[in-house]
Amino acid sequence: MILMTLSWRSRKQITYLSIFILIIVAIIAFFTWYLWPQPTCFDGKQNQGEEGIDCGGPCAEKCFGKVKDLIVLWTRVFKVSEGQYDAAALIENPNLTAGSPVLRYQFRVYDADNILIAIRQGETFLNPQERFVIFEPTIDTGKRIPQRAFIEISDIDWKYIEKKPTSLVVAKKEFQNLPFPTLQIQIKNSSVFPVKDVFIAGVLFDEEGNVIGVSSTKLDRIEAQSTQLASFTWPIPFDKEPANSKVFIRSKFNE
To answer: Structural domain of residue 223, as residue ranges?
Structure first.
């Protein structure tokens, strides 16, 4: 009889203990759920059905897949006057929908002894799937003579940017070497909307395809269905007239 009573008491204690443990677990689960941060489109995690980290699914930000590195096609320095040089680089963004509203860069200029003699920093924007020229004029090198330059791109905060067909084309271009080199172009806007903040770079090549001169300019606005002139100049005539020229036109896409 005592054994049966003890067994019954033990079972009762176990039942009460189990109920108590369940209540504690339920309370902990409730407060964990209540206080735990809810998934958002800004938490740096891929959750809540997102296609990538904080993009796709319920998030307004679109995913652009794996991002490819920018390609530096060439970097050059050009003498302007004693102790003054221009630096330019041709960059390609191979990504179809990835760009950035801010692209920070740094030109590093070296002499024949591989000594760093000048640094120039700047920033621009980055459109998807575009080749463009970065140009920095009149870099002071003192008495040192530059032999090469490199461009370094800072870490990019990639964004999804919808690429749209450009409405700007070069309708005409003319070059004259005397009395000083001038490349004059006509840019046509075939769109029914004006285009603001148009950045243009002119690049000159010799017969072997080497870059011998770069210049840039900016037009504040090109009206719809209109043509506008732009000019590039260089300080002294080239020993031999350039064999070819190319114009790079860009304006910022909307995100």
So the answer is: 164-255
Which tokens sit at 13? 């204690």
Q: Which residues contact 251 (CB under 8 A, 6 or more apart)?
A: 166, 168, 195, 196, 197, 198, 199
| Three state DSSP letters for 19-32 | HHHHHHHHHHHHHH
Is residue 230 domain-shared with residue 183, that is, in the same domain? yes
168 and 103 in one domain? no
| Assigned domain for 4 exists | no
pLDDT along the chain (255 residues), means of 10: 56 73 78 67 75 76 81 96 96 94 97 96 96 97 94 94 84 94 96 93 96 96 95 93 95 73
Q: Residue 75 domain-assigned?
A: yes
Same domain, 119 and 92: yes
Residue with tokens 């680089």: 89
CA distance 131 to 94: 9
CATH number reported for the structural domain that contains residue 210 in this entry: 2.60.40.3230
Domain assignment present for residue 22? The answer is no
The terminus-to-terminus CA distance of the chain in angstroms comes to 83
Q: Where among 141, 163, 185 does a domain terminate?
A: 163
pTM tops 0.90, yes or no: no
For the chain, strand residue ranges (E) read: 71-81, 84-93, 98-111, 116-126, 130-140, 146-153, 159-160, 168-176, 182-189, 195-205, 211-222, 226-233, 244-250
Name the phi and psi angles at 3, rounded to 5. Answer: -65, -40
SS3 233: strand
CA distance 145 to 163: 41
